Amino acid sequence: MRIGQGVDFHRLIPGEGITVGGVEIPCEFGVEAHSDGDVLIHALCDALLGAAALGDLGGHFPDSDERYRDVASTRLLNEVLRALQNAGTWKPVNVDSTVVLERPKLAEHIPAMRAHLAEALGVGLDSVSVKATRTEGLGALGRSEGIGAFCSVLIERG
Ligand code: MG
User: Fold this and answer.
1) Strand pairing partners for 6?
2) Residue 111, pLDDT above cutoff 90
3) Among residues 10, 17, 20, 80, which is most buried (max CB within 10 A)?
4) How far is the CA of 49 from the centre of ligand 1 (A)?
């Protein structure tokens, strides 16, 4: 078995909604990003790549590559899972994650995020944890200037 961790941040801008964990959340923000800016999936991808020592998301899918403009992050996740499979028949065991966002509240969307990630990863719902927290108004995230995510993952050889 191997363990990995991933972290991601994106700047928030005025908009009509954000995508977190593959779930569209209507709100007064959008995410400034080359892709759909899904911080949770980006952190998850980095955790998976890190567990297998396969580099990071930016190395696999550079911002400069027009093929990845506005791409759904679930597609990136699928490609990362394929890379792990090819590199060592690695497959995910379980995921724990935390999204940092001042508002809107994420609690009502967490079941849908867990379901989306469990399906994408090919694991059971009880192997995917998504938590949410605020910074209580502290710093840039507390001023709703950005959104962050932290993720830990365990992988094993298939
Ligand atoms: Mg990102």
Assistant:
1) 151
2) yes
3) 20
4) 14
